[in-house]
Design brief:
single chain, 319 residues, alpha/beta, Rossmann fold, 4-stranded antiparallel sheet, 39% helix
């Protein structure tokens, strides 16, 4: 439990992920730390290649941690685990992948795809119970029982993502990593999938790590947002706090890139381009992550932190 009495479901502490090939190495995730509370949606936002998916894959232990640790309900899940703990983590932490076509077995029917986890963990009493669970979950995601005999290539992208969601939810997980689950979908379908995620969260008390690059979508679904740039988290805050007081220059650049549904305003607006070399000088002062208060964390040097405090609390005074 944290001081605010909220239960921490997942804790990422000083995480590094380094990829090595022969004598070369690349640090994809650099000293990342954050907590996710029970029942909340914590979003990880950044441009392509910033390390968002790498963090998600490290949590489900696809990518090994080079340093730091990941705790689930206070228990370390990074590194080697016993077979029992491994199975527990696989069942309790599920992942929804970005590409609904590539993440489904084209040779298997929808019924088998959804049932595979039930088979592996024997989460049903008998065959009748398994069929009941599969038919119930396929209805809950907006598909029909007659779809169960079909194959993934017979569905649209939105329908395939619903199958991927059903495959995760049928396992009765407690924590779901949604890795850009709507980026490959049509705009008209995106809201339906987001509403499904919110519906399951409300009904089942799920916690989400939502990975995305589109801040406008993240604003709709998130409780808190972490902004990541080149493997390092630069700002964490509650959703409305972040949009009201974006302090880090990279956060400002992401917000400035959100499209405005008015062609005149969109044409005249100015994009803020983030160039670290022009904005920061860390040769003298070492940067660190600092809590400004109100749950707003920012990465910067001591002089930058003072500037951010004046911007944040100065605006608050004027308001």
């Amino acid at each position: 439990m944290e001081e605010n009495k909220r239960e921490v479901v997942l804790s990422v502490q000083n995480l590094d992920v380094v990829f090595r090939q022969r004598k070369q190495s690349f640090k994809a995730v650099d000293n990342v730390s954050f907590d996710i509370y029970k029942g909340e949606t914590f979003s990880l936002v950044g441009e392509s290649g910033s390390g968002k998916t790498t963090i998600g894959r490290a949590i489900v232990r696809i990518n090994p941690c080079s340093a730091g640790q990941i705790l689930y309900k206070g228990k370390k899940i990074s590194g080697r685990l016993s077979r029992k703990d491994d199975r527990e983590v696989v069942r309790k932490i599920q992942m929804i992948f970005q590409d609904p076509a590539a993440s489904l077995n084209e040779r298997a029917t929808i019924e088998y795809i959804i049932s595979e986890g039930l088979y592996n963990f024997h989460l049903y009493k008998d065959e009748k119970d398994r069929i009941r669970k599969v038919e119930n979950i396929i209805r809950e995601v907006g598909l029909l029982p007659e779809h169960l005999t079909r194959y993934p290539h017979e569905f649209s992208g939105g329908q395939r993502q619903r199958v991927g969601l059903a495959r995760s939810i049928v396992m009765e997980p407690e924590f779901i990593i949604a890795d850009e689950p709507i980026s490959a979908l049509d705009v008209s379908i995106r809201a339906q999938v987001l509403n499904l995620l919110k519906k399951f969260q409300k009904e089942r008390g799920l916690s989400y790590l939502f990975i995305a690059h589109d801040l406008s979508i993240v604003r709709f679904i998130s409780d808190r947002i972490a902004v990541i740039h080149k493997g390092k988290i630069v700002e964490i805050a509650e959703t409305e706090e972040l949009f009201a007081y974006p302090l880090h220059p990279y956060t400002k650049s992401l917000i400035s890139a959100i499209p405005v549904p008015d062609p005149i305003i969109e044409k005249s607006k100015k994009l803020f381009v983030y160039d670290p070399a022009k904005v920061h000088d860390y040769s003298v002062e070492k940067p660190e992550m600092v809590d400004l208060g109100n749950g707003h964390f920012i990465y910067g040097s001591p002089s930058e932190i003072e500037k951010y405090k004046k911007i944040r609390f100065g605006n608050q005074t004027e308001a």
